[in-house]
Amino acid sequence: MQPAVELRGITKRFPGVLANDQTNLVVEKGEVHAVLGENGAGKSTLMHILYGSYQPDEGEIVLDGQQVRFASQREAIGHNIGMIHQDFMLVRPFTVVENVVLGLRDERGGILDLGKAAARIKELSDRHGLTVDPWARVEHLPVGVQQRVEIIKLLYRDARILILDEPTAVLTPQETGKLLATLRALTAEGRSVIIVTHKLHEIIEVADRITIMRDGRTVATLDKKATTEAELARMMVGRDVALKVRRTPLRQGNPILRVSDLYVADDRGASAVNGVDLSVHEGEIVGIAGVDGNGQSQLVEGLMGLRAIRQGSVEMAGVEITDAPLFDRSGKGLVYVPADRRGVGSVATLNIEDNAILGNQRQFSGAGSLLRDRAKSRSHAETLIDRFGVRTPDIRFPAGKLSGGNLQKVILGREIMRDPRVLIVEQPTRGLDVGAIEVIWSELLAAREQGKGILLISAELEEIRNLADRIFVMYGGRFMGELRSEDASDEVIGLMMAGVSAVGAREVGHVEYV
Amino acid sequence: MWNMFERRLAPTESPWAIAAMTFGSVVLAFLIGAVLFLPFVSNPIDAYVSLFEASLGSMRGLGITLNRAAPLIVIALGTCVAWRAGFGYLGFEGCLTIGAAASAWFALLALDGGLAFIPSILFFAVAICISFGAGGAWAGGVGLFRSRFGGNEVLISLMTNYVAAFIVQYLVSGPMRAPGSLPQTPRLPTETWLPGIIPETRAHAGILIALAATGLVWLLMSRMRLGYELIVTGLNPFAARYGGINVGRRYVLAAFLAGGLGALAGLIEVLGTQHRLLDGLSGGIGFIGIVVALLAKLNPLAVVPTAVLYAALSVGADAVQRSTGAPSSIIFILQSLIVLFVMASDFLRYWTIRLPFKSPGSESGKV
Amino acid sequence: MFDDFVVSSFLVTWLAASVRLAGPLLLTALGEIFAERSGVLNVGIEGTILIGALAAYLVTYQSGTPWTGFAAAILAGILANLLLAWMYVTVRANQVVVGIVFNILALGAASYGYRLALGSASNPELIPMIGSVTIPYLSSIPLVGPILFSHSILLYVTIAAVLAGEFVLFRTRFGLNVRAVGENPHAAANAGISVSRIRYAGVLLSGAGAGAAGGYLVLAQIGLFRDTIVVGQGFIALAIVIFGRWRPIYAAFAALAFGAADALQLSLQLFSFDLPPQLLLSLPYVLTIVAVSGLIGRAAQPAALMEPYRPN
After folding, report:
1. Predicted-complex ipTM score
2. Beta strand spans in A124-172 (E)
3. Which residue in chain A is spatially nearest to C178 when comparing CA positions?
4. Which of A240, A460, B127, C7 is most enclosed, with most CB atoms within 10 A?
């Protein structure tokens, strides 16, 4: 039987990045096919190409045996392909009916017949078990129901191939279960479902076959029955080039950052951090491993004062800072290098000098912190680019034009030069080349030797194992257990990242030597 | 022919391209103006010459031009501060009106020798403070709406212009009214008039206030920590927040400063030119100042020459109408075309022109 | 009893004037609703009204028939807003600034155009105007009759337009697309709708409304052209759109409120009140501020208003 769709040799370039590199994908009719990979692996781009949002630079799309070219989303929709994005494409004040019929052109004279559409929606919703009130306004619906509306949109247009981009990212466990059941039912009708995700646990439950992508390439395509979560985790996050650093023996000092029973909510009000305890001592690196999206960002935002803490406490050197504004926390020596270096960590249009003082600008002002001390900030920036090896013509160069690695050096450098007590770094080497990674790693280790405490959040196993003295694995807003770096093999961490507790993971890790 | 144009990914930043575009816009506008002059004047160049002679060529004309430029400068400065902080304030008409009312109120205290014991310098200093404070509070309120409730400052500030106008309308018809039927205050005593600065002309100290304000705003934006924080807030409020900056407070600060500067325009008008408060004294300056700021690309130093040029055009327009009979509306058209062309030229910087005889990929021949 | 008569005749005069003044405001606001619903704040309607007024005057002067003048006013408004739409949607320039500058340009152009066409005659000629109707029977109803049922034909045209506008906005595919583009242009684009095309349409509709309002002023109210006949009506229309929560039918009531405030100025000459008139005059604006202050939620404003659309 013909596959539903084949993507052959797809290559797509954006300025500065090769998003897809000769990528292949084969999806059969009536199957749930998972496309697995980290952020930046190129899976979303590939799906956008299938959906007609982008055109590939090279490669072809073969739909049911016929080669096709989609110049726009409209054409893909016309070929019965539908896509549900991670950010739902719903008009919030509209009713369900209005959202479903948006973009169609099927009535006389341009006058809407919402009643007829509502009846058809009701019929579809009954047939597929997607309960929804056609006249409800989308903004009042819980996220799980909003997703149902998105699915109904696709079914209303008789989509034979449904693409779902990170569908469970915004769902509760119960909603996730319902969704996966729905997807199974849809494939029973002969439709194909492509799920793009990095959530291993759900994949194992619902997928028939899995394609793993990394750095824009297809790594492997496996039958679900022929693999395990651990193997998938390893294939998803492994790096091709092995980096090694030398880490001096741990000289752990006093605890400086203490977090007790922390609960933090996400933007929707659901609990993203569920009772986290941790402490960071002088001179150690504490690593938090875990696939992105398990509460790490919310944890850090809670620690820094960028997000309200629902329950629990945070202390720096014995002083409670649970409700303190960010400014006070950095004043006490708690600083942060965020994951989004271009959007939030720096101001692209300002030069290096101005970015080098961001967050600490009062230190670089005289006259009662009114007048900028340009000489001081200039020499600070010069020292920074010198010490951290930032490749730039000069400090007047706009930060937005720096390469990822150089920009990260500036951001990390400015925080290290504040002589903090605890440094929180989130995904510090995401998207960087090997040379930059080595510099960042050695700077973090140097800070550790100077007695600073570092909290490292990363989805890169190699990074965690190379740098961290103690490792926590975060899953579903909780720590699945604490490991010393000597005990943390890929299997063990991989299983914990997939939700298995530390004890169970260690058992499995010891038994399985395939 | 259309394949001569190729779209870039980001607009070209080269200063030459920008200067060329700005210069081209001005030239094009003047050319169109020349065409508009034709039905009335045999040689448009003569009209332009007499325009600039009248506004900049004589001391008298220069004096009037500087008087007209002064309120434009301070409003443009207010726009620079607010808009660069990411606060789209448009209520300068209202601030001008409020500042005018506050200065007039204070000046009226000097009627019948009420403030005779105060030296002039002190009077003006206090008047500036009162006026600035009134305007700052007026606009600061809008800033609070934005920072506390997330209100839309563009729409709110547009509406506050009307409320301010009504407040002054009430004041000049009632409590501050001069005896007589006209809705206006009594003429302000001469001690409260801004002193003249160039003998034999009507130029008054308003331009000095404007220049001082220019210096202070420039100092704020390039040399002061608060200016740095305002700019970061405007460029990337998220990064500002992660950098520990209290974004809401900065919006209120930006609003306060913008309002105070706008109010100074009112003080300059009332104490320098009009010498009384009356209904409708703003005459649209509140919006023209915004336009001047945009032409000057929100750069405080560029505001002064831009405002003087703009004011020169307005002053010259009247002179040209008197001497040639050509309507002054041609100059309004000219002024607005300059701005529109400059704004449209930002768009053109997205495109490059590939001349057919150059090989593809070569830098020369691109605009 | 005499007092009752005085009060009721004041009320009738005042309310009839309110309805009359509200006409052009409502027409402008109606067009602007479509522009803002599609996500574009068109401040240039102020200048467009003037251009429409000029077109109405000149064409009626030439042709002798006021209805051709009215049609010309609409056409002129649309053409003028073609430039605005290009600046807003294609160039993606700052909408507010473009609008402000356009108003200055329109004032200059209208002044110049009038001068060119008719010279600087100090006695402008009156042109044939569009007349009023007095609806039989209904207009004889005491009180309500004169207030509602004996007005210019254009007022009834305006009311019909409001009803049509409400229908188009909420019952047609076009209206659905307009609202989608103004709330979430990415979702609309994702559904295959051309955001630029819809926004161009919205701005051109606001041009048609403002142009028609200019024609209304000249042909049904004033009878001649001066460049001072439009002073702030465009901005008042912006307030009406907000106050009417971007719905044509509510805008009609909002226009009435603003018209009433304006008419109060005239009527108050005849009767003395203790409250300063400015208090009441500013009330609609204060209420509009409250409406967008965020105090009562931002629910009604089109979410993508004033944000130029950049496809990802």
Report:
1. 0.86
2. 161-165
3. A102
4. B127
Judge: B235–A336 Cβ closer than 8 Å, yes or no: no
Q: What is the CATH number of the domain that holds B167?
A: 1.10.3470
Q: How buried is B96 (Cβ within 10 angstroms: 0-12 exposed, 13-18 middle, 19+ buried)?
A: buried
Where is the domain boundary, A227, A254, A289? A227
Cross-chain Cβ contact B231/A350 below 8 Å:
yes
What is the tally of structural domains in chain C? 1
Distance CA B280, CA A484 (A): 76
Distance of alpha carbon A80 from alpha carbon C145, whole angstroms: 59
Q: Number of residue pairs across A and C with CB atoms under 8 Å?
A: 53
What residues form DSSP beta bridges with A32?
Answer: A193
> For residue C86, what pLDDT is reported?
95
Q: How far apart are CA B193 and CA B190, in angstroms?
A: 5
Calculate how close chain B gets to C148, using CA atoms only, in Å.
29
Amino acid code (one letter) for C187: A
What is the model's pLDDT at position A84? 92
- Integer Cα distance of B134 and B142 in angstroms: 13
User: Which chain B residues are within 8 Å of C41, Cβ to Cβ?
Assistant: 154
C192 part of contact set with chain A, CB < 8 Å: yes
Q: Confidence band (pLDDT; 50, 70, 90) for B365?
A: very low
Sort out which chain C residues have CB atoms less than 8 A from B290's CB and list them.
Answer: 97, 100
Chain A contact for B336 (CB, 8 A cutoff):
no
Token couple for C128: 């044939």
Share in percent of chain A as helix, strand, coil (round to 5):
35, 25, 35
A14 to chain B, any CB pair closer than 8 A? The answer is: no
Decide if C300 is inside a domain: no
Closest to B220 in 3D by CA, of B210, B228, B208:
B228
If you average pLDDT over residues A293-301, what whole number do you get?
89
Mean pLDDT of chain B: 87
Interface contact B241-A326, CB threshold 8 A: yes
Report how many domains make up chain B.
Answer: 1
CA B356 to chain C, closest CA, distance in angstroms equals: 26
R_g of chain B computed on alpha carbons:
23
Answer whether residue C269 shows pLDDT above 60. no
CATH number of the domain residue C170 falls in = 1.10.3470
The pLDDT tens digits of the residues spanning A43-71 come to 888 998 998 888 999 999 999 888 998 98
Domain of residue C195, residue span: 15-292
- Whether residue A514 has pLDDT greater than 60: no
Q: Evaluate whether B52 touches B62 at the Cβ level (below 8 Å).
A: no
Kindly state the tokens that stand for A103: 């973009």
Domain hosting B84: range is 51-326
Query: Which chains form contacts with chain C, at 3 or more CB pairs under 8 Å?
Result: A, B
Q: Is there a single domain that holds both residue A325 and residue A373?
A: no
Binary contact (B145, C293; C-beta < 8 A): yes
